Amino acid sequence: MIQWRIDNKVDSILEHAPTLSRMDVLRRVIPSAQHGYTKVHRPLYIEKSGLTRVNKILNMFTPEELLQCHIYWLEYICQRAREHSRQLGKHVETFTSISDLHGCKWNIRKVFHICKEFLYIDDNYYPERLGQLFFVNPPAIFPALWDIVKHWVDPVTKTKIIVVKKGSGTSTLLLQHIDSDQLPHEYGGSCKACPTAPNCIPVYDWDKDTADDEKEE
Q1: Cut 0.85: pTM above it
Q2: Domains of the chain, earliest start first
Q3: Is 38 exposed, middle or buried (0-12, 13-18, 19+ CB in 10 A)?
């Protein structure tokens, strides 16, 4: 693991200007935000995975850049956990993610090879960091997509995944784990802390540049 961190310059990645720049672009392509903490003090990350601009990812990023961005994301959320640990005076080392699949299309399969690499990094270099993963608003195609991905997911990780069916029960379940003021309004929360609240997860307007998305299915 030490050699891997050296090879990927992990210890300096949070200050690496090119990666920071690519992360800014990636947040436009995949709407997401680091957003508060859960009731057990885990850092919370929310991603509108279903709105991923798949063709833009493939056209605008190399696989190496995406892997570096993923490592950056892992290091950043681990840093949040360490900082929160110091504030609380207790150890926090896991995080919680919400993946909103509303709008997810078949073309998401085009980036599954990258997702497989992400999972390898997670399992081998950041083991047991995931506390919970909520898949919310799963589309009808979710079971078919999961049949592909599940073979790459560690058995222990699978036990931490909760699939929440569409409907009013989504907010009820999330609020069992996350206080209302830590959760965006669209998921049943009452967050007022974000500069863009109640729209806590910004969605970039790509309407002015949609040529490569017209082919998305």
Answers
A1: yes
A2: 31-60+77-203 (3.40.525.10)
A3: buried
